[in-house]
Amino acid sequence: MKFAIFGNTYQAKKSFYAENLFRLLKQHDAQLCICREFHHFLTADLNLNIPAAELFDGDNFFADMVISLGGDGTFLKAASRVGKKDIPILGINTGRLGFLADISPEEMEVTFDEIYNNHYKVEERSVLQLRCNDEHLMKSPYALNEIAVLKRDSSSMITIHTAINGAPLTTYQADGLIIATPTGSTAYSLSVGGPLIVPHSKTIAITPVAPHSLNVRPIVICDDWEVTLDVESRSHNFLVAIDGRSESCKETTRLHISRADYSIKVVKRFNHVFFDTLRNKMMWGADVR
């Protein structure tokens, strides 16, 4: 098998995990191609001895499987590079919670044994697409987690006129609004009171950030519907964050958000159960008394 490898370039203290990863891949005679930035971090900054491998920039690669070594942020960056390539991604978690990257370093050896024995499963995760006339946003318009509109500074709230399939939903007076996939329901959306959504539910969550009105609540809609946003701001601009990548946007820009025409494939161990993840990662329902 050929693996394309992405990794976190800020966590020098976790270099041991990279060494172990390459050792296990060598045992399986795997072919390797490594993101050039990550390779430079490992060799120049950490002085690690890395096996011979192809190096690539951007999305100029092909492999049977992608490995993301880091947290969910690293996984999101890898997913944006994979895009429409239809290559499954294995997330090895060296970060904190790890919903996307949920294979612990201690599980690496058994996980690769399972992969080479074809004893694993691949989950398809929906992706959001943004359409607008802002060329900066259109350079990378896809989100695996969420697309959020946010006030640009610490001043007053923004006004977000929201429509579903062209029909008015409501006007939010808030610090922002998050449009999240089921995958993103455990990320930013959850932190501001959004609902937990099962990954395969084919839905989108719309969650306001610090709404001015207490009777405004999150809403879940079908993922084949389109959300249209018109934003007003006293500063006449606002932020658009696509999986954490933010750009300033003029208030005259109308945003159209819908499900993309492709999905991201996530590698999971064969016995993986989403509800186990909720209990283990979030201590869901745990009684600490």
From TrEMBL:
GO terms for cellular component: cytoplasm. It catalyses: NAD(+) + ATP = ADP + NADP(+) + H(+). SUPFAM superfamilies: NAD kinase/diacylglycerol kinase-like. It is found in: Cytoplasm. The active site is at D72. NAD(+) binds at D72, G73, K77, N145, E146, D175, T186, A187, Y188, S189, L190, S191, A210. Its cofactor is a divalent metal cation. GO terms for biological process: NAD+ metabolic process; NADP+ biosynthetic process. GO terms for molecular function: ATP binding; metal ion binding; NAD binding; NAD+ kinase activity. It holds the Pfam family NAD_kinase_C. Keywords: ATP-binding, Cytoplasm, Kinase, NAD, NADP, Nucleotide-binding, Transferase. Gene3D superfamilies: Probable inorganic polyphosphate/atp-NAD kinase, domain 1, Probable inorganic polyphosphate/atp-NAD kinase, domain 2. PANTHER family: NAD KINASE. Belongs to the NAD kinase family. Involved in the regulation of the intracellular balance of NAD and NADP, and is a key enzyme in the biosynthesis of NADP. Catalyzes specifically the phosphorylation on 2'-hydroxyl of the adenosine moiety of NAD to yield NADP. This is NAD kinase. It comes from Prevotella heparinolytica. The gene is nadK.
